[in-house]
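How a chain folds remains the central question behind the approach discussed here. The record that follows shows the chain in one-letter code together with its fold in token form:
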Amino acid sequence: MPPPSKTDHLPPSHPAHRQRPRSPNRVLAEAEAQWIFTEAELDNSPTIQDGMSIVEERETRAKGINFIASVGVMLKLPQITLATAAIYFQRYLMRGSLKKARGDMPKLHHYQIAAISLFLATKVEESSRALKEMIIAFCRVAQKNPNLLIDDQSKDYWKWKDCILIHEDVMLETLCFDLTVESPHRQLFDLLKCYGVEHNKRVRNAAWAFITDGNNTQLCLLISSRTIAVAGVYAACRSYGVALPDDEKGRPWWEAQGVRLRDVRRAMEFMEAGYEETSNKINGIIAAVVQGAGKGSGSEGERSIYVASPFVMPPADGERRASNASSIGEKRKRDDAQPGIAINGDDKAPVIGNGTVETAAQLSKRPRHEEVTNGQPPPQIELDGLGAEHDFKHEEERLRVQHGDHQAEAVQKAAHANGTLAPPSNAAKDDAEVSEEGEVEE
């Protein structure tokens, strides 16, 4: 047998330095095949048989996986340990029920199942943590308080401790003591090294995210771990336009790994459906409210004031200040000066001389000068003594500004620009001082 050739002079990226991914262990592959189900079997899990809907069951699974991830972040556990715990959690729910006890399997909360799964995964993956630290993390995540102080003699502490130690054997029996699993994350790293793309940050992160997101779904119950790893690389390379070389026989790279293309596409379609469902759930809140506002079926979202109120473009700064000076100040002045009874919190109904309150119909039929002055006739304008440059039109504009005309200030401002209008009276200046903007008009 000839001696192996020397590769010291070759760069590290040369194919001679790359290590081919190890072939899947036949024993592990056969054991993993026993936990592969069809989509029809996933829709007929024990929890669904006991009355829980498919959507609710999947949401409960996702909550359990999020519990594992939150505890893992708090305890700084490796991702492979969290992936193993997620697989235990998914497999347990294919034999146990969340609704009621089945045989020797008691009814457990999904947080309790997730905690036991993570406890076993830390032992299997040799990343153990002290039981006290894990129980404290379980209590904090379950109560959604990361700074919660837990005493080792408290009721919650012993409740979690008894649950883990008592039901650990139940978990082992339910999983048939099949605790050795092939992690898709570990196989992903071997694939990236084999094809020399482990230093491509975008491809590496995209493939890693694909597999990590798969832990939140039932993908591990549909497809083998090796197929999931290949699907992650395939999706990442396709997203960023990276082409991987074929093998020596001219076969595509996924066939060289013993994976069929239809299984890879099936995994990608399953994950794509999950991404779309999550996106629709996030965006569906706004879409449902907007769509329901047009239908008017009477749901709570359709009765919202934000849905019923049309969007109005705010006016420019100059127009807003002009309207504030004429309307807001006059309104406050009338509210303080005029007697009345409050209607709808802010508005006041004018009181007639005999002490009665006018109705909305009577208010709509009143002349404008009565509506503004609460029944009092407008003051008469004294034109005697005015200069030749002032005429009746200018005095009328001044009167409109005093009595709340929203457009008078804009006209007055234009007249000031032309230099044809005398300065306004002191009443108009007082209105500007109480402007909503807190600014005084020049």
